[in-house]
Write a structure and sequence with these properties.
Keywords: Membrane, Transmembrane, Transmembrane helix. The protein has 375 residues and is mostly helical. The chain has one domain. 72% of the residues lie in helices and 0% in strands. The chain has 15 helices and no strands. The radius of gyration is 22 Å and the shape is globular. The N terminus is likely disordered.
Length: 375
Amino acid sequence: MGAMVSSRTTCNTPILLFRISDARTRKVVGIEVVILVAFFMYTAILYRLSTIWDRQSLPSETKSTSNNSPKDEHADFTKEIAVDVWFGLTLMPTFDAIAIVGTCNLAIINRWHYFVSIRTMVLAYLASIIVILSSKPGTTNFIYEHPGSVFMLTLAVYAGMGACLDYFRAPPPRTSMNPRAWTMSEYVGAIGRSDGTWSEAIIVTAVTCGLAPALTISLPVECWGIIPLVSTAFEAIIFRKTRFRRTCQYTVLSAPFFQGGVCVHWGLKQIIGSPRLFSPPWMFLLLLVASRLILDLHLQTLFRNCPEFQWARARAVLPTTQLVPVVLILLFLEMMHLSVVKWVKPVSVLGIYLAGIVAGTLPGAYTLAFGREKK
């Protein structure tokens, strides 16, 4: 018997049976452990760098002020609400992205992540910015007196960012491949199809993943939320200009650093100061449903001619008709004083990033350990 038993089933069933007695299986486990250790270490270092730079960028009068005025307290309250708004609008899209990984269709995974997930993150970021600006003296009156103008301006910024994403990477074609779930063997084979060297992977990793710490140092604190967006677009530009393809070596090397940068600016920075929900649970749950309605609207308009996205929405993503009852159950539990939603932020951040980094690197680690299947 070999070290692996495979069958022609979808990714949702266990098809790769590892034998712990096999040295190659232990190598896969070892690679994953090293990746996770590197992820935690880099995340801690980058977060520490961001806190040092954050303190250095504060005005001296702010550092010396010990008592907050009512205006400052209101601004802090608004920032906490903005964080909850961001989490509420991004939690379901993140779970959707993980569900898409379950199809094992590499083409759909890459396209959904870039064209769908990133757009929802942009909208969530813009919504949180509007909440923060609503407490600033120079913009409060304009936001409350001209909501229509604010809405149109937000849509214009969103459309501009979407156009930039499409420019850096060609949008999905009108007629695409026959969408279906791949087998795990096909998924692993697709990941390991591109040959590459470790030296190339190291160079590209240094270029693509070095952008996050550079932007953390150079950009104002208020702009740190766009760093993951810029990093993702920058990676697409590098791939497009150099014709570099995502190899196993690059996947394994870049994952802890790229995901660490995203985790700091789209996770840790939001929950360290306020791990619990600051907004009412009903508001957070309402945002979950709103994010799903935003996804449905995108698929019915912008991506209506993308059959792979329509298939993924129907076969992989939790239907809205099932999400609403779950939200109602959670709301009922909150009304019964069972705080099941209060600590959703740290639990979701830890679970999502761990699941994402393992799911993203396991095929590459497997290919490096077991080698490519001979045709």
